[in-house]
Q: What sequence folds into this?
């Protein structure tokens, strides 16, 4: 969108690793061109990014006094946008066979159900709330282990997504997964698998999309309904004390 604007020269976006702020700077031929974009094209950009913004961006206009990045006339205009992003990586193009504690494609979050995890010998580490990150196993390996024990491991259709501005840190990615879990709490499934982590750009601003699918471990080959899953969840809460 920016490249189509009259007077546009360049754009730079900054994101602090692990932070919650993104700053985007666009460079224009003149103040008039910057103001024209601010009144016409800019509102469309804000609208398209509304799902990943937790407050209205602040716009500041400045003049370039000097630059060593490129040859810019001294009267060029910088239009800076400060954008706050909601709290939620490390991009991983493929799921690895041996999983580390870092979130990547194939990572499994499992609800804290002591009886089930002990019966299946599943090791995990706390991630947030009543959810933990499965250690050393991706979705494929965990499924093999569950089936070998005579249990079932269901994969649910329907992709769940969370998006956020900037190149995300491990901490922010875990927060994104917790947002997905909180949003879909009533389903009562006991696992969530990360299926895609995608780095994207819009109008020069980087953002990340995290996709996941519900999974469910249980005894028996017929998937329990939501009430039965809820009863199992309450039993797990009782077991946790």
A:
């Amino acid at each position: 969108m920016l490249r189509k604007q009259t007077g546009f020269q360049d754009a730079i976006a900054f994101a602090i690793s692990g932070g919650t702020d993104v700053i985007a700077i666009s460079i224009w031929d003149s103040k008039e061109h910057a103001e024209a974009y601010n009144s016409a094209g800019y509102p469309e950009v804000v609208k398209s990014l509304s799902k990943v913004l937790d407050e209205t961006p602040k716009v500041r206009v400045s003049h370039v006094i000097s630059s060593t990045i490129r040859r810019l006339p001294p009267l060029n205009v910088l239009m800076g946008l400060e954008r706050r992003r909601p709290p939620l990586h490390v991009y991983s193009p493929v799921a690895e066979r041996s999983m580390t504690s870092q979130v990547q494609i194939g990572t499994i979050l499992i609800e804290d159900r002591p009886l089930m995890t002990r019966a299946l010998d599943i090791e995990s580490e706390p991630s947030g709330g009543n959810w933990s990150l499965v250690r050393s196993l991706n979705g494929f390996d965990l499924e093999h282990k569950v089936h070998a024990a005579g249990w079932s491991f269901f994969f649910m259709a329907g992709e769940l997504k969370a998006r956020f501005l900037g190149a995300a840190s491990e901490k922010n990615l875990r927060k994104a997964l917790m947002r997905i879990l909180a949003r879909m709490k009533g389903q009562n499934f006991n696992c969530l698998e990360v299926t895609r982590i995608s780095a994207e750009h819009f109008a020069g601003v980087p953002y990340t999309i995290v996709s996941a699918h519900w999974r469910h471990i249980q005894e028996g080959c017929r998937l329990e309904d939501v009430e039965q899953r809820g009863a199992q969840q309450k039993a797990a809460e009782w077991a946790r004390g």
Remarks:
- Helices lie at 31-39, 41-48, 114-120, 139-148, 170-183, 226-240.
- Residues 84 and 224 are 41 Å apart (CA to CA).
